[in-house]
Write a structure and sequence with these properties.
The structure is a homooctamer of 214-residue chains. Chain A contains 8 helices and 9 strands. With 214 residues, chain A is α/β, with parallel strands linked by helices. Chain A folds into 2 domains: 63 residues, no CATH class; 125 residues, 3-Layer(aba) Sandwich (Rossmann fold), CATH 3.40.50.1970. In chain A, the strands form 2 sheets. In chain A, strands 6-5-7-8-9 form a 5-stranded parallel sheet. In chain A, helix 7 links the parallel strand 8 and strand 9. In chain A, helix 1 runs parallel beside helix 2 and helix 3 runs parallel beside helix 8. The relative contact order of chain A is 0.14. Chains B and C meet through strand 9 and helix 8 of B and strand 9 and helix 8 of C. Bound molecules: adenosine monophosphate (AMP) (4 copies) and magnesium ion (8 copies). The site of one magnesium ion (MG) has 6 residues of chain G, from loops. One magnesium ion (MG) binds next to loops of chain E.
Chain lengths: 214, 214, 214, 214, 214, 214, 214, 214
């Protein structure tokens, strides 16, 4: 965890028993010590979700994002608004992981779905919400063209997340990753393939309330 | 050369002397034999241009496309209109190679430049010419996003040409090549990196006059 | 879906429940609204086929292509003939996906199988049907050599589809993809690995009836 | 150029004559129209520098960054401080390109050099300046380890720029690019290899003065 | 097996029956012949562990490292101390495989866990044990930055083992492999991805007692 | 050099002085010692050719293949006939290198040029010479389709040599290399990109006179 | 199937029912038509073996090579001897597939196992059998070094088969494939990864009885 | 520079002026301060050599290794012997860079050339010197097979250096790099392609005199 931000437990590759042990430690350690700040459990399998809902009776569980947060309430939002954009249902798990991460790091967040490059009118229809954002997270697979288009429309920085959606020459996300690294509009920051957590974290840092010196 | 279409001589990797020999054979063989149909010399270096302007006193020379045609006059156009689109000067050599190839194969051609993904309004301003095309050749480097956007706006097929413009993770054209193979709009045909000749040829075939049975 | 063409639902990566919901929406929305034009469901698993045959009592189901169409009747064909070619049974699912897509987009289609590069006589025996096509879709894995050979024999454009058939240095379709991008005959358009849908869509656009201006 | 930010001309791949034409247009257009905001010329060869120093008698020229700005004065800085970090002289051209870009976009910038992963004490000695930054640009080649280390020490977002410095398995910047995409500390945004301009632009957007709503 | 070192049986890809046959041969051959020197069985599945615990009633079994040794007692350690370092639980199987291999080759070994690049203070806290080592094995996935940092702190050689932990652009261990090959501190030796056995073997050879001539 | 075959000196990467020294040693050592068997100098630059023509007054020099042989006379041919096939002038240097190597290893050789996949009739016209070969070397760049076609027409083994001719997705010969490794006809042996020497050597070994036991 | 050689059915990717249908056709067609020449079924799963043993009561089944031949008797061997070499049990399936293929194509075959680069004495001990071969098939994974060593010891051509054995930077056989393409001894022919069938076929063609003209 | 070892200046990518400035600083700083320990200048171009021979009147210059050392005398050797092995002249620059680096770090070094995998007898003839080494540096390009063979013959650790020698599928050293990472004998440590400096440094650390506790 970064200095001053909540902890996240990356569950992929951990056994349910390992996750249970961590969760119990989190639950028991929380007695007063870290009164604010949820712990996030990311990339949860069904078994992980099961274990976590037993350890925490009141956890916030998002089945699409495969993310669990406890304590369940995100902090009251400060800083600028974070907008998360994606084209459709296949990119939704990554988009929601980014959204929830930024929310639990204390930002006001909004999700814009069904916005794809092959249908420009739908993007243009959402210009007001895009232009109000302090930072925009754009989640996209296949040709990875959406961040270029969005970055061309706004002045805020764009955090681009390639996804492993697709087949053949998508190469598990390499195609959109390369496209995003070569975005023809400046202002595009790239994170790892499918890394919704990292994108949300970065967006929350970017949209953090300005220090007094800023 | 394809059945019924003009010959093309690919000059890259040939010595000026080799090109001269081919050109002289073309000039001398043309006595009546193949009365219509120019021969194209593609990817000419300055030395090649020099040699060819000596062999053919009246060749058509395009310095941007590095292409020479002889006899210089393209055939009277038949079939549907071909539109060639690119974002800027770096992609222009490839775009013009496509344009000229299609023209010498007998199509009516139009060039649309300065149309990029990061400035949607410029694309939208050219919708009428795009929608009038029988086929559109889209030339793009870097994120290779332009074919997806164009294909989403028209019903005609799009021939996408990735270019080697860019640096770093553009990997000499791999980034736009992959993006185009994963275009999120259907109707995108891809050719080799920088292959303006192939794109123009393909476009001319697609826009060929319909046979009586069609 | 492209302007004026039917919708397609890409089922891979969707749960049976998600596909059911989409299918029910399609079925219910069709009350008069879009009287012509089938919806295609592509890349269906057995579970998807099951769900779809329950939602639509009269859907057209192709188990080889893993494709479902509803309403089941393709439109009366217009435009030029589309010919789909492949070497054998392993490439058949992709070939049939291309064939059915073009048919549901309103083209007359013909399938030519068992035509491989290692047995030229079988290709030469099919020359009449190949030369009658307005566009030819060539589906091939391994060395991806078939499009070069076919393109050398006809004047129509060739849409080449690499398949992930093979092992080792086939690299899941990279070998034929590269071969096709480097086809030594001009007139070869390439789509993504295993992308029969895209190839059929593109072929239907290429073989569309000429506009009056063409 | 992004909405509200200065224009940049990417000179690589342009002839000196093309650059001269653009520069003259910039110089002549500036009569009152865009009173603030310098135009940046990036990736200038010696010939480009020569041409530009003739067109603009008073341009700001940085030979290390290969960057020219005109009018020469950057705007008065607003927003938060940008810190640019690199390990040594080989990464300096990219680092300075980032620094100058951010400065001409209106940020207060500071450069920290000679800070490498193999000598932790030098990084730790600069902690106060690092912790005062609103955003840190970290430029690194070879193992690309520096952004992970820096991101672990601060709460601000880190913009990581891989460089093509090195040989063999550095693969022209692929090694640090991959390392940065897999940074073990969250909060690392990655841009293209050697893309100092993009990093500086992004940093300026991140450190922009907060809107009143933030 | 190397001259003078124990044999190792790589179980991955062998059926339980094949492993049983080898194990029985080892057990029966050991009658007096090779009185010292355990045989190692590496990369054991649960089925392999099962078979081996039946063939050898007294084998040493490490479930984390998936390694079995018989006879169970490692030799009395000679030569210099080997320290094995990793950042967390995901790298532990590889780290323990290295540790046990070096121990069964006759070295004194120590394991240092929970030492990551994003938390420098934890590394610095372990400096005394790191500086006492004759050789350090550093196991790391993701950005593979840990060997560079460790090598910068000590004079002993570092054996770096990239792991396949991570996702997306970690590419199954390619990212840390490349980072390690480009370590910015000299003195880093790299072995194959996940190759804990090879790293432990190499470390044992490096830390072997000096010959009289040294 | 293989047991019983002539030596070859690979000149690429050697200075003219280094080549001169080797050539003088060859010339002086040949006094009676190895009365038969020429030494081959391959991949000669113009400078290398110059040096070699001075050391050997009577060397055989092939400027296309960049190959020098001394003594100049190849041995009287034994074994079966070797046929070398390629499509055009760009592949000729590699084809001639193969041809000459096989000839100097003692085989009867024939060269067939201007035989490409896009013009099947030219291949079919050469069937008699192809079917008379004991082994066929097929040199091809771009789509690398020629070996598949040739191997489908004959019973003899085919040695396939990919060339680095082409651009873009030819990737310096990777495209034809992969195609050849995936040749859809059995009986295709592959050597390194541009490795005419290796192909000629292998062909000479395959076509060697049968031992009495064969 | 090549001209004059038996047919092979590649079963991977075929359903048991598809294989059954082919097998029944083979069985029923064999009534007198092709009295000599077995049909080979390669890459059989357990289910394929099951089906084939029901269709053919007397098939030859090799469980290691996953190969079935019917009629079961190979032809009486003619031509030169084929030797197949590999280092151990992991490469045995590929080695046996090569061996059986060559045998059913009519060659005398011998298998040499347990011969690895790390134990030169074992190779040297088998020199007589290696030197008696007309062609040697060398099967190897990991570093793919064995073909170089073997080719340096004999005058016969070597057919090298990389295998997908190994992990990490073996990259499913890419490591030995590249090593073999760069073998430092001439006379090494490479086939696809794991392609024992292709290697055996090629070896049988190379060792075929010389034609009268040879 | 590592703790306790001499400094090295990597000259590639530095201008002659930059190298001169560093060299003058080294010369002037040496007044008493660091009485032992030469500074190494590696990867020197002809211009760098020129500059350095002017700054240091008595530098040790190795034109093959492109390495300059000053003060010129290496320290009196301590620790175990380092043996550097390579196959021929193309690998010699890297081999000598390793040799000199180890010598200037205080080891006794020996060079063994003309030892290749295709001629085993030459390796076997050098067994005594190989077996006397405390560590062996093996430099090899192409198939990268030499380290596997050497490691199989000795008990000492092997440091393997892939070189960029070769063409085509050697891919600038990737082929031997992968082979070495997959060496079939344990005890092989790999460094970056062409990294003779790193290999020599690592070898010197491995062969360092044992601490009293060892
Ligand atoms: N979904 C995720 N993707 C990438 N990194 C993550 C994710 N979730 C957590 N992390 C990072 O992984 C760290 C926890 O790893 P671990 O200690 O193995 O649970 C956290 O501090 C985060 O930096
Ligand atoms: N610029 C080009 N890019 C790709 N292929 C080309 C180009 N120009 C010509 N060709 C193809 O190359 C063939 C001529 O090659 P060549 O005989 O070597 O001159 C023509 O028939 C075209 O198919
Ligand atoms: N194990 C194998 N590996 C590679 N190619 C094979 C193999 N077995 C058969 N083949 C080839 O595949 C062809 C049969 O393919 P199919 O018609 O799909 O059964 C044969 O003619 C052989 O050329
Ligand atoms: N030939 C070389 N190959 C790789 N690394 C080197 C080489 N020479 C010097 N180095 C490393 O580069 C550092 C010096 O880099 P620099 O400060 O840019 O001269 C040294 O401390 C060494 O760690
Ligand atoms: Mg923007
Ligand atoms: Mg469209
Ligand atoms: Mg054609
Ligand atoms: Mg931080
Ligand atoms: Mg150190
Ligand atoms: Mg054949
Ligand atoms: Mg040999
Ligand atoms: Mg050894």
């Amino acid at each position: 965890a970064r200095r001053g931000y909540p902890e996240a437990v990356y569950c992929e590759g951990k056994t349910p028993d390992q996750v249970r042990a961590i969760a119990e430690a989190v639950r028991d350690a929380d007695q007063g010590e870290k009164p604010g700040g949820a712990t996030l459990f990311t990339r949860c399998s069904d078994d992980h979700l099961d274990v976590l809902s037993h350890v925490f009776s009141d956890a916030a569980i998002d089945e699409t994002a495969r993310l669990v947060a406890w304590p369940p309430a995100p902090p009251a939002p400060v800083g600028g608004p974070v907008v998360v954009v994606c084209a459709g249902t296949s990119d939704l798990p990554v988009a929601r992981e980014a959204l929830l991460t930024a929310a639990y790091l204390g930002r006001h967040c909004e999700l814009v779905v069904d916005v794809g490059v092959a249908g420009l009118h739908r993007i243009l229809a959402r210009l007001p919400v895009l232009r109000a954002a302090r930072v925009i997270v754009v989640v996209a697979g296949m040709d990875g063209a959406l961040p270029s288009v969005v970055a061309g429309l706004v002045s805020a920085p764009v955090v681009a997340v390639p996804t492993s959606v697709g087949y053949g020459a998508a190469f598990g996300g390499i195609a959109p990753l390369l496209a995003m690294l070569n975005a023809c509009a400046p202002g595009v920051a790239v994170v790892n393939i499918d890394n919704g957590y990292g994108a949300g974290h970065l967006a929350a840092q970017i949209a953090a309330p300005a220090a007094s010196s800023d």
